[in-house]
Write a structure and sequence with these properties.
alpha/beta; six-stranded parallel β-sheet; two-stranded antiparallel ribbon; 12 helices; tRNA binding; EC 2.1.1.221; S-adenosyl-L-methionine
Length: 324
């Protein structure tokens, strides 16, 4: 019996050693690679673990496919004289510290406990979009994340190297980072309409993806702590059949485009998705210019769709080559 026990112990040590070696090489943990070792997991938890394991196996393949898509997209753009924006070399020189734009913008991440994991993941994607927009701007805004210490931070850690982004990360609340009198909390429930952006102010966007479950929460918090609050002038320039609550990245891009010198009308038409069914409220003399912008937006989406279709056709042809 003692010999059998010692043999079992040796086998267990071998399995654990193999797990540790694989995890060190593939930067994973034992939970994701070896769900069979966790017999106490529920069916739902085990399903999540298996799903993550399956994704890790396909991760390399997906990244290669994305790189190929990006390569074909650039080639198509060059062949058709489509401007894809500044080069990576130019972007490296465009940083917040050297930017002529001193408008501050921060995302308040103090609402983690009000969101499920799925919404936290959506929040992270929107933050990634905000970073990309600011990174590709000629004059980036002063972008920061505050109350960066909970589930949002944990989810962000899935993106290796985020610590090196040109973004300021603060574990403290925005109230402890910026002067109280220089803060404006953006909320659609505010009675104060923002007509222009102040360069010495910090605009706060609530980092809350709740599908309107906590309506008016950001406005209520701003009133409680005694800071300024305001809303974007959507009613002044647009009629919207859909609700006026925008995603974090849409609000961020609107502020960025206005900081670059574009009008509110131009910005709303370029940024807001078509599902919002926006209708312009403009003087008749300005209709032509605004409609030109709207048509340019439609042409832009058409071109992007054309590029994506071209990539998909090439992928299909490559698959046929492999099959034959």
């Amino acid at each position: 019996m003692e010999i059998e026990k010692s043999t079992n112990n040796i086998e267990t040590i071998k399995i654990d050693t193999q797990c540790m070696q694989i995890c060190e090489h593939e930067t994973c943990n034992m939970d994701t690679k070896f769900p069979e070792l966790h017999l106490n997991l529920s069916k739902r938890q085990l399903k999540k673990v298996k799903k993550k394991e399956k994704w890790l196996k396909r991760k390399v393949e997906l990244r290669l496919r994305e790189r190929e898509k990006a390569k074909q997209k650039r080639a198509f753009a060059r062949a058709n004289n489509i401007n894809l924006g500044p080069s990576r070399k130019a972007l490296k020189k465009s940083i917040m510290a050297d930017s002529s734009c001193k408008i501050g913008i921060t995302i308040d991440l103090s609402f983690d406990d009000l969101m499920i994991d799925k919404d936290i993941a959506k929040l992270t994607k929107q933050i990634l979009r905000c970073y990309t927009l600011n990174r590709r701007a000629i004059a980036p805004m002063q972008f920061s994340l505050t109350s960066f210490n909970g589930k949002s931070k944990t989810d962000m850690q899935k993106h290796n190297g985020y610590e090196h982004w040109d973004v300021k990360f603060y574990a403290e609340s925005y109230l402890n980072v910026y002067p109280k009198e220089k803060i404006i909390y953006l909320t659609s429930e505010s009675e104060n309409v923002i007509t222009q952006l102040e360069h010495d102010y910090v605009y706060v966007i609530g980092g809350l993806v709740d599908h309107n479950s906590h309506k008016g929460l950001c406005h209520k918090l701003a009133v409680q702590v005694g800071i300024k609050h305001g809303r974007l002038p959507l009613d002044k320039f647009l009629r919207m059949k859909a609700r006026k609550v925008l995603t974090i990245d849409h609000v961020f891009e609107i502020l960025l485009r206005v900081s670059e010198g574009k009008t509110w009308q131009e910005t709303f038409l370029q940024v807001l998705p078509e599902r919002k069914n926006v209708q312009l409220i403009v003087p008749s003399g300005d209709n032509k210019d605004i409609l030109d912008i709207y048509n340019n937006k439609k042409n832009f989406f058409y071109t992007n769709n054309k590029i994506e279709s071209k990539v998909k056709i090439n992928e299909f042809e490559n698959i046929n080559d492999v099959c034959t």
